[in-house]
C-alpha cells in the first residue's frame, strides 16, 4: 500500500515532510527480536545462557565450547551476570569490567554480535561478545586460561 505524502512549508522557510499515521502495520512497528536464552528455547540460567550463546556463535562462525565458556565465567564472575569490577585499572580509568565474562564497554561495543542485546549485562550478549573478542585475539575462548 502506498501512503500519500504531503509537503508542508513552515513560515521559517523549512520544508517538512508529513506522513499520515493511518496504514501502519504491526510489521513496520515491530521491535526486532533480540536473542536471549528464553527466546532461543533455553532456560534463563547459566546453562541456558551458555547454550544460547553457543547457538548464536555457531550462526556467526565464532568458535568456542561449553567447557571453555563455563571455565572462564566461573573465574571471571562466579556466574553472576551483574558482576562489576570497580577496583582494577580499567575501573580507575572509568571503564569497569562487567557481566559474566567481565567485558569493558569499548570491547563489548567493538565485538558485539548482531541479534544480541546492546546491554553488556545481558548474559547472552556478554558471553557472545566476549567469545567474539577471544576468537579474534586468541583463536577461541577455549584458549583463554587467565585474565584476558
Explained architecture:
By secondary structure, the chain is mainly α. The protein has helices at residues 26-29, 46-59, 66-77, 89-92, 105-111, 123-138; strands at 6-9, 15-18, 84-85, 97-98. The strands form 2 sheets. A two-stranded antiparallel sheet has the order 1-2. α2 packs across α6 (123-138) and α5 (105-111) packs across α6. The longest helix has 16 residues, at 123-138. The N and C termini lie far apart (53 Å).
Write a concise synopsis of the structure shown.
It is built from six helices and four strands. The protein is mostly helical. Helix 5 (105-111) crosses helix 6 (123-138).
What is the secondary structure topology, with strand pairs?
Elements lengths: L5 E4 L5 E4 L7 H4 L16 H14 L6 H12 L6 E2 L3 H4 L4 E2 L6 H7 L11 H16 L10
Antiparallel strand pairs: 1-2, 3-4
Helix pairs in contact: 2-6, 5-6
Compute the gyration radius: what is it? Answer: 21 Å
- What order do the helices and strands follow? EEHHHEHEHH
Identify low-pLDDT runs.
1-28
Overall strand count: 4
Strand content range: 5-15%
Mean pLDDT: 86
Molecular shape: globular
**Number of discrete helical segments:** 6
Task: Please estimate the helix content.
Answer: 25-40%
Oligomer: single chain
Q: Mind describing the biggest β-sheet?
A: 2 strands, antiparallel
Q: Largest beta sheet: what is the strand line-up? A: 1-2
Structural class comes to mainly alpha
Distance between the termini: 53 Å
Task: Offer a few descriptive terms.
148 residues, two-stranded antiparallel ribbon, globular, disordered N terminus
Amino acid at each position: 500500500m502506498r501512503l500519500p505524502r504531503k509537503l508542508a512549508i513552515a513560515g521559517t522557510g523549512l520544508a517538512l515532510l508529513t506522513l499520515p499515521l493511518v496504514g501502519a502495520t504491526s510489521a513496520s512497528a515491530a521491535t526486532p527480536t533480540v536473542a536471549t536464552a528464553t527466546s532461543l528455547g533455553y532456560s534463563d540460567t547459566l546453562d541456558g545462557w551458555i547454550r544460547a550463546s553457543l547457538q548464536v556463535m555457531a550462526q556467526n562462525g565464532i568458535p568456542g565450547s561449553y567447557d571453555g565458556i563455563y571455565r572462564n565465567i566461573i573465574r571471571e564472575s562466579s556466574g553472576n551476570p551483574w558482576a562489576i569490577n570497580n577496583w582494577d585499572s580499567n575501573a580507575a580509568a572509568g571503564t569497569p569490567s562487567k557481566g559474566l565474562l567481565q567485558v569493558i564497554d569499548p570491547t563489548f561495543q567493538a565485538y558485539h554480535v548482531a541479534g544480541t542485546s546492546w546491554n553488556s549485562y545481558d548474559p547472552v550478549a556478554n558471553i557472545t561478545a566476549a567469545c567474539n573478542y577471544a576468537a579474534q585475539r586468541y583463536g577461541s575462548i577455549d584458549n583463554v586460561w587467565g585474565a584476558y
